[in-house]
Specification:
alpha+beta, about 300 residues, Tumour Suppressor Smad4, Rossmann fold, globular, six-stranded antiparallel beta sheet
């Protein structure tokens, strides 16, 4: 078997780059050939992932949620899609939390060596792809507005600092939400299309599944201060493992159309995405990923069927 390892030398404060020889030698215990590739940009990661589908049995990569999205956007376009292996090194790492993959390099590599895989759903939004969230509304742009240099210093707090800007000018989005079985007209401060347990590191969607062929659609209710209070309550309730029914309307669907007034920018896996109206589709069991198992050889994450 052949694999390629994609990594950003600046990711994880350069920790991965310092361990590159160790990572290669460890992967050689499983793969006959290991090619190292230092990525130069998001576009480079996407294009390299596309080419790798024709040459390798596995694509191993390191980075945060944005890097995972880049690899997904490359691999998802191809008919032949290699197994993915992930070594988390981002700031929040929501996808790693979903998969129960630790940031520790040695432990993440052991998961790949053990070789247990699952299939994971992928979202398609207006022709591009996402792994865990597409969203519009208050606070959503903080994830891609926040500068990398600030994240290196303050970590997760960097997003909170940027998010305060939205507190000064909250907005309600007027949306028409078209699901398979119903059409809804709603005003909301925040709309989340989720294939995830957590967002921004907060596991408020604990009942979600990652390979059931559907998305969880969370519409935050409007209320005090244009619904900002309900957004804050959503994250606090999720932080303490409490029910979120009081602050959101929740639906489940595999195909979604959203018509929205104006031209808001969608946040897709933490990066800026399409503008305005979108069509979203669930691609069921579309990617195969190495994930951890317990002592009884059962998948650690309860998010998989």
């Amino acid at each position: 078997m052949r694999c390629i390892f994609l990594y950003n030398p600046k990711s994880g404060r350069g920790k991965v780059a310092k361990k590159i020889d160790y990572i290669k030698n460890t992967l050689l215990k499983k793969f006959d050939e290991v090619v190292l590739y230092e990525t130069k940009s998001a576009e480079d990661t996407i294009e390299t992932s596309k080419r790798a589908c024709k040459e390798y049995d596995a694509i191993i990569f390191s980075g945060g949620d944005g890097t995972f999205n880049d690899v997904t956007c490359g691999v998802a376009t191809q008919e032949v899609r290699p197994i993915l292996g992930y070594i988390p090194s981002g700031t929040v790492n929501d996808i790693a939390k979903n998969l129960k993959i630790p940031k520790n390099i040695k432990k993440a590599l052991k998961i790949i060596l053990d070789g247990h895989t699952v299939y994971h759903d992928v979202g398609r939004i207006n022709g591009t792809y996402f792994m865990y969230v597409a969203a519009i509304g208050t606070f959503t742009s903080a994830s891609y507005r926040t500068k990398q240099s600030v994240k290196r210093v303050f970590g997760k707090l960097a997003y909170a600092f940027d998010g305060f800007k939205d507190l000064l000018n909250p907005k309600l989005s007027k949306i028409t939400l078209k699901l398979e079985d119903q059409t809804l007209e709603l005003d909301t401060p925040l709309l989340l299309i989720l294939n995830s347990i957590s967002v921004a590191g907060i596991p408020f969607n604990r009942d979600g599944h990652l390979n059931d062929g559907t998305f969880d659609v969370l519409v935050v209710k409007k209320g005090i201060f244009k619904g900002v209070l309900n957004i804050i309550r959503l994250f606090l309730l999720g932080l303490f493992g409490l029910g979120i029914k009081r602050v959101v309307k929740r639906y489940r669907a595999s195909s979604i159309k959203v018509e929205v007034e104006g031209e808001p920018v969608w946040t897709v896996d933490g990066e800026s995405g399409p503008v305005g109206n979108v069509e979203i589709e669930n691609l069921h069991n579309y990617l195969q990923i190495y994930i951890p198992t317990n002592k009884k050889n059962k998948v650690k994450s309860k998010s998989f069927n």
